[in-house]
C-alpha cells in the first residue's frame, strides 16, 4: 500500500512517517530545488517503489501527477495530519499552510473519484515520541483541509 502524508508545516508529518516500515521519502529532502522543481521531482516518486511520501510539497506533487496521468491513482491512501502546529510558525510557513489547503481543495475530489482513501489523524504529544506541544499552539488552515471536518462525497459515475 502506497501512502501520502500531508499537513501543514510543523504538524508532525515527518515524525509520524517514521512509524511506517518500508521506503519513506520526505519532500523536505528536495527543498534545495525550489518549489516547482521539488514538487515536480516528488510527483515521480508516486511511480516508484516508495511506500510512504510525506511533506508540505505532497499536495502539489499529487496535483502534478494527476495532471500527467489521466487515469489511475498515485497512492492508495492519503493521511491528513490535522494538528495545531507544535511550534510557532513564521509568516512564510503560515502562507505555505494556506497554499496546502488551496491545492488540496483542488485535487481531493479527483483523488476520491480515482479510488484513493482519505483519512485524517490527530497526533498527540505522546504519539510523537514524547514531544511536548507548547502552550502557544497555533490553529492552522490544516485544521480545515477537508472543510468542517468532513470529506466531500466522491463524484457519482
Provide a brief overview of the structure.
The chain has 157 residues and is an alpha/beta fold. It has 4 helices and 5 strands. The radius of gyration is 15 Å and the shape is globular.
Features of this protein?
about 160 residues; Rossmann fold; five-stranded parallel β-sheet; 4 helices; alpha/beta
Structural class: alpha/beta
As a percent range, the share of helical residues equals 25-40%
Question: Biggest sheet, in brief?
Answer: 5 strands, parallel
The CATH topology, please? Rossmann fold
Which CATH-level-2 architecture?
3-Layer(aba) Sandwich
Strand order of the largest sheet: 2-3-1-4-5
The total domain count is 1
- Percent of residues in beta strands: 5-15%
* Radius of gyration (Å): 15 Å
How many beta-strand elements?
A: 5
Structure characterization notes:
The protein is an alpha/beta fold and about 160 residues long. The chain has one domain: Rossmann fold. It contains four helices and five strands; from the N terminus they run βαβαβαβαβ. It has helices at about 15, 35-45, 60-70, 90-115; strands spanning about 5, 25, 50-55, 75-80, 115-120. The chain has a five-stranded parallel sheet. α3 runs parallel beside α4 (about 90-115). The radius of gyration is 15 Å and the shape is globular.
Amino acid at each position: 500500500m502506497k501512502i501520502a502524508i500531508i499537513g501543514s508545516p510543523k504538524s508532525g508529518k515527518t515524525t509520524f512517517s517514521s512509524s511506517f516500515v518500508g521506503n519513506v521519502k520526505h519532500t523536505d529532502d528536495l527543498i534545495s530545488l525550489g518549489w516547482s522543481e521539488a514538487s515536480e521531482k516528488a510527483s515521480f516518486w508516486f511511480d516508484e517503489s516508495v511506500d510512504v511520501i510525506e511533506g508540505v510539497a505532497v499536495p502539489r506533487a499529487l496535483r502534478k501527477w494527476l495532471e500527467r496521468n489521466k487515469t489511475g491513482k498515485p497512492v492508495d491512501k492519503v493521511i491528513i495530519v490535522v494538528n495545531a502546529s507544535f511550534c510557532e510558525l513564521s509568516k512564510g510557513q503560515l502562507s505555505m499552510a494556506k497554499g496546502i489547503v488551496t491545492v488540496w481543495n483542488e485535487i481531493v475530489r479527483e483523488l476520491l473519484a480515482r479510488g484513493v482513501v482519505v483519512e485524517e489523524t490527530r497526533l498527540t504529544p505522546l504519539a510523537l515520541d514524547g514531544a511536548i506541544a507548547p502552550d502557544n499552539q497555533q490553529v492552522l488552515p490544516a485544521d480545515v483541509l477537508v472543510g468542517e471536518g468532513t470529506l466531500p462525497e466522491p463524484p457519482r459515475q
